[in-house]
Amino acid sequence: MLRQSSQRILLQLLRNQAASSLQGAGAQAATNAQQFRGIGGDKIPEYWGRPSAYTEGTNFLGTPKNHLELINKRPLAPDVLEMDGKTPHYKMPWGALSSITNRVTGVALSVGFTGAGYIALTGNLPGLVQSIAATHPILLFPVKFAISYTLIYHYLGALRHFAWDHGKIGNQADKTSLLELPQVELSSKALFGASGALALIAAFM
């Protein structure tokens, strides 16, 4: 009987200790969640920058009094725009612009050829083109330019990628590669310019 009573008392003590540990862990987790509440999309503690039990603060570094307000205004990643929400944060390089345009023209060609193919199979594609040209002649030149530019740009872009894939890549010490930033910017400008000039000529035909 005495052994059973001792076992019950020991079991009760262990249960009380486990419950206290869980309560303490829960309170600590709640405290951590409050301290490290996300500000401006980051896990920055609320006490950051000011004296507290955790830090002496950063007043000596010149931290502004409204630093938490400024943190709340910080843009979330990807930070495409500045804090005013209007000005672009980064200047888009020519290589990125030409790459995006290459993808856009590819999607446009896929959609355009699919639509033209469907109309050709189910109706009269030449008749539709002639009807639009006769009823809306003002649209003829811009439509021809848009179609020509899309075709020419994507074709020339494919040729550039072919040259990149089979050309000399080099290494960090070799600056003659076609993938070096100055060469990429030059080829991107040439791609835009040549496509526009050739599309303009095609639209006048």
Automatic annotation (TrEMBL):
It comes from the Eukaryota. Its main location: membrane. GO terms for molecular function: electron transfer activity; metal ion binding. InterPro entries: SQR/QFR_C/D (IPR034804), Succ_DH_cyt_bsu_CS (IPR018495), Succ_DH_cytb556 (IPR014314), SuccDH_FuR_B_TM-su (IPR000701). Keywords: Heme, Iron, Membrane, Metal-binding, Transmembrane, Transmembrane helix. It is a multi-pass membrane protein. PROSITE patterns: SDH_CYT_2. It is found in: Membrane. The chain crosses the membrane at residues 138-156. One of its GO terms (cellular component) is mitochondrion. GO terms for biological process: mitochondrial electron transport, succinate to ubiquinone; tricarboxylic acid cycle. This is Succinate dehydrogenase cytochrome b560 subunit, mitochondrial. It comes from Chlamydomonas chlamydogama.
